[in-house]
Amino acid sequence: MRLTCLIPLLFPALAMAEPVQIPGPEGPLEAEQITVDGAEHAVVIIPGSGPTNRDGNAVQMGLSSDSYKLLAEGLADNGIPSLRIDKRGFFGSAKAIADPNSVTITAYAEDARAWVTHAATLAPCVWIAGHSEGGLVALLAAQTPPNNLCGLILLATSGRPTGQLMIEQFEANPMNAPLMPEIKSLVSELEAGRTRDPATISPALQPLFSLGLQRYMINLFSHDPATLAKGWQGPALIVQGDADIQVRPHDADLLEAAMPQAQRVTLTGGTHMLKADIAGNPFATYANPDLPLHKALLPAVTAFILATPTSD
Q1: pLDDT tens digit string along 99-118?
Q2: CA-to-CA distance for 298 and 110, rounded, in angstroms?
Q3: For the chain, what is the mean pLDDT?
Q4: Domain 16-161+225-306: CATH superfamily, name plus number
Q5: Which candidate in 121, 273, 289, 294 could, as Cys together with 267 as Cys, close a disulfide (CB 3.0–4.6 Å)?
Q6: Nearest to residue 68, comparing CAs of 98, 105, 33, 119?
């Protein structure tokens, strides 16, 4: 037997990543797919807010974590295939809609359901893993669960309406104090379904409250994740880092109270990027893709998924 014939026996085939597409509203939606032969479970990974790509990066916002890429690769190492998606209007899904700001959380949930249907070709039991705002998308998608949806994995997901969370995040920076009355007023109007002329908004806030983003936030702010969580009776895993400076452990408390069937995992020293905090550098995990995922994340997610039997 020649050496070349022995190589496949000595080195099992690696799971390979490849881009895949499904139909979108105006053009294709795209994701990165990792296939694992004979898998019983698959995971659809939904990104967080803004122009965050399938790997967990938003270069224009200074975000370079590779968190979703590391998660997908770690799942594959444990025999679980995945799809990590680009949201409609961004990156590989740029042609799905002409204006990425002319979208809603409701539309993202429709796309998530479509990806679950595609993921069912990888494995019979499909999970949605939503990170941050992606967790809200997962909860909304589960209100009308597609076939093959087995459960939800909520990663650093807010338990409060996003308008409330936004105010808290702004208040955390003392430099925003002069802008807080205006921010609170803007959030109140958006929660009531009203936009404001961007020209009347302080210049420092105009990029965050363009007319397109205001329309998006009206839909976003209308959804209460805790209320949505009560509508999902299936398996759920809540993952929250106690060093997360964007979403707090209190948010996980609210989700846990709304879903008594859920399991909860606390990442001790875990940041919003699902990595271990670097002492003295709270933004290190946002900017260094070489930092690994928190050591407790993959074991917890993998054990939770594999403990759920698939339907016959």
Answers
A1: 988 899 999 999 999 999 99
A2: 27
A3: 94
A4: Alpha/Beta hydrolase fold, catalytic domain (3.40.50.1820)
A5: 294
A6: 33
pLDDT value at position 147? Answer: 95
Q: What is the pLDDT of residue 20?
A: 98
Q: How many Cβ atoms are within 10 Å of 222's Cβ, its own excluded?
A: 17
Cα gap 176→183, rounded to integer Å: 9
DSSP sequence for 131-190: ETHHHHHHHHHTTSPPTTEEEEEEES--SS-HHHHHHHHHHTSGGGGGGHHHHHHHHHHH
- Tell me which DSSP letter residue 224 carries: -
Residue 3 is predicted with a pLDDT of: 40
Hey, what are 42's tokens?
């698959």
| Residues near 8 by beta carbon (within 8 Å), at least 6 away in sequence | none
Q: Which residue is listed with tokens 């452990």? A: 249
Query: What is the predicted pLDDT for the residue at 311?
Result: 60
Q: Which of 58, 280, 119 is nearest to 66 (CA)?
A: 58
Q: Is 225 helix (H, G, I), strand (E, B) or coil?
A: helix
- pLDDT in the model for residue 236: 98
Is 52 strand, coil or helix?
coil
Q: What backbone torsions phi and psi does residue 161 show, to the nearest 5 degrees?
A: -55, 145
Residue extents of the structural domains in the chain: 16-161+225-306, 164-218
Q: Residues 6 or more apart from 173 whose CB is under 8 A from it?
A: none
For the entire predicted model, the pTM comes to 0.93
Q: Which parts of the chain sit beneath pLDDT 50? A: 1-13
